[in-house]
Amino acid sequence: MAIPNPAPNHELRSPTDLHPSASGGDQPKSKGWLWILVLIVVAVGGYYFYKSRGSAESKAAPAPGARGALGPVSVAVVPALKQDVPYYLSGLGSVTPFNTVTVKSRVDGQLLKVNFKEGQFVREGDLLAEIDPRPFQVALEQMEGQLARDQAQLNNARVDFGRYDELHKEGVVAQQQVDTQKATVGQLEGAIRADQAQIDNEKLQLVYCKITAPLSGRVGLRLVDQGNMIHASDPTGLVVITQVQPIATLFTLPEDSLQDVIQHMKSEELGVEAYSRDDQTKLATGKLVTVDNQIDPTTGTVRFKAVFENHDLSLWPNQFVNIRLMLAVRKNAIVIPLAAVQRGTQGSYVYTVTNGHANMQPVKVDLTQGNISLIASGVAAGDQVVVDGQDRLQPGAPVEVHSSSPNSSPGGSGGVTPGGNRQGGPNGGAGGGRRQGGGGGADSPAGSGQGQGQGGHKQGQGKQG
Fold first, then answer.
1. Residue 234 gets which letter from DSSP?
2. Which tops the pLDDT comparison, 286 or 7?
3. CA-wise closest residue to 286 among 311, 253, 255
4. Fewest beta carbons within 10 Å, which of 104, 110, 166, 373?
5. Helix or strand (DSSP H, E) at 336
C-alpha cells in the first residue's frame, strides 16, 4: 500500500522563504533620513537668508535725521538781498606819528625851569623850558663893549685917512702913507663887522636859553629834571614831542593789488578805515596819501601810507591795526550769507526753498567779503536760501522752515561791513596768504587776497597763487 505525501510538491518552501530579505526592510529607513537631512539644510538656509536680509535692510535704512530721512528736514533760511556793497582790500598796518621831534638844548647851561607837564598837548612856539641866561648875557655885553672900541678906532682912522689924502694932494705926504691909512680903515671896518656878528651870536644864544616847541603835538615823559646841567651834545634831549593830529598809518598789500589801486587813485581819492586788532571795532577813517616807490622783493608786498585826522585820539603811535582800503562800491549786488554757500566737485552751490522743497542751485560767487558773499549768477533777489541744515538736505527733499538768527542775514549785523580780512575773488574762493603776520585775507578780482580764506587761516606775507 502506498504511503500518501502529506503535502504537495508545490507547497514545499525553501528556508529562504521562511526568512524575509534584509535589503527590503532597510529601504524605508534610508529614505526617512534623507528627508530629515533635506529639511535641516532648508531650515539652516532660511535662517541665514533671514539674518542677511535683516542686516542689509538695517544698513540701507537711513539714520534718524540723516540724508534721505523720511519727513521734512528743519532748515533756516534767509532771503537773498540786492544792495550796495563796498569792495575792500585789507592789510595789516602800524600807526606812525606824522612827525616826531626830540627836543634838545642848543646851548650848555643849567636847566632853570620846566614849563610843561608830561602828556600835555602843546602848540608850536610854546615855551617848554628855560636855561640860565646870565653867562650869555655877560658875553653879549663884552662883545658890545668891543664893538664900541672898534668903532672909535675906525672913526679915528677915517679922520687920519682924510687928512693924509689932503696932504698928499699938496705934495707933503707920500702916496704910500695914504694907502697904508686907507688899509687901516678897511681893517677896522672888518673888525666892526666881526664884532656885530659876535653880538648877534650872543643874542641868539640868549634866545636858545628859552626852549620852545618846534611843532604841535603831545609831550612825552620828561627826560631831564629841573636844576640839572644840560648840554647840546646830550643824546637823550629834554622830551619827545609826537604829532598825533593828524597821524599816519603804514600798511602793506600784495603786489598783485598794486595796479588795481593805482587805477582807482587816478580817478578818485581812496578812503581808508582802521580797525582794532580783533577786526571788530572801527577806530578811524582817513584817506590814502601815497604808495611806496618800490616792491619789497622778500615779501612780495607794497607799502601804502594813509593819513587820519585822529580827533578822538583813537590811534596811537606804533599801534597795530587792520586797514581796509575801499576801492569801489558794488551797486545792486545780490548778497547772501557766507554760510549759505556750499562747495562740491562741480563747484559752488546753494540750497533754495520753493513750495516747501529744497532745490540745489549752482551759483557763481563774485567775491566774498566778511560774512557775506556777492553772487554773480544763480540766485535772484528774494530767493530763500538755506543757511543752516544743508548737511541733511538733498534735491527735492521736503523741508520745514524756521527763522534764522539775525547775524545770518546779509543785511543783519555785520552784513555789509566786512568782518575779518577777506576780499572776494571771481570764483568766491579763498585767496592766497600774504607773508605778513596778522593779515586777514580773501580773494580779490585780480586773484589776490590776504590771510584768511574759505579754506582756513594763513598768516605770513606772500604772493597770491
1. -
2. 286
3. 311
4. 166
5. strand 320-337
The C-alpha atoms of residue 321 and residue 92 are separated, in whole angstroms, by: 6
Among residues 218, 448, 431, 421, the alpha carbon closest in space to that of 321 is found at 421
For 221, the grid coordinates are 615823559
Please check the confidence at residue 47 and state whether its pLDDT lies above 80. no
For residues 397 and 62, give the distance between their C-alpha atoms in angstroms, rounded to a whole number. 14
- C-alpha cell belonging to residue 384: 530763500
- pLDDT tier at 110, thresholds 50, 70, 90: very high
The DSSP call for residue 258 is: H
pLDDT at 414 over 50: no
Cell readout for 19 is 526568512
Instruction: Using the predicted structure, report yes or no on whether residue 436 has a pLDDT greater than 50.
Output: no
What is the Cα–Cα distance from 278 to 276, expressed in whole angstroms? Answer: 5
Amino acid at 216: S
Phi, psi (rounded to 5 degrees) for 100: -135, 130
Q: For residue 8, what are the contacts with CB-CB under 8 A and spacing of at least 6?
A: none
User: Which pTM value belongs to this model?
Assistant: 0.57
Q: Give residue-wise pLDDT tens across range 69-96.
A: 457 888 888 898 888 888 888 899 999 9
- Closest residue by Cα to residue 74 from 417, 347, 401, 457: 401
Tell me the C-alpha distance between 95 and 315, whole Å.
7
User: Does 438 score more than 60 pLDDT?
Assistant: no
Residue of 237, 240, 233, 199 whose CA lies nearest to 108: 233
Question: 326 is written with which cell numbers?
Answer: 575801499
Surface-to-core class of residue 73, CB atoms within 10 Å of its CB (0-12 exposed, 13-18 middle, 19+ buried): buried
In the chain, what's the furthest Cα-to-Cα distance?
Answer: 241
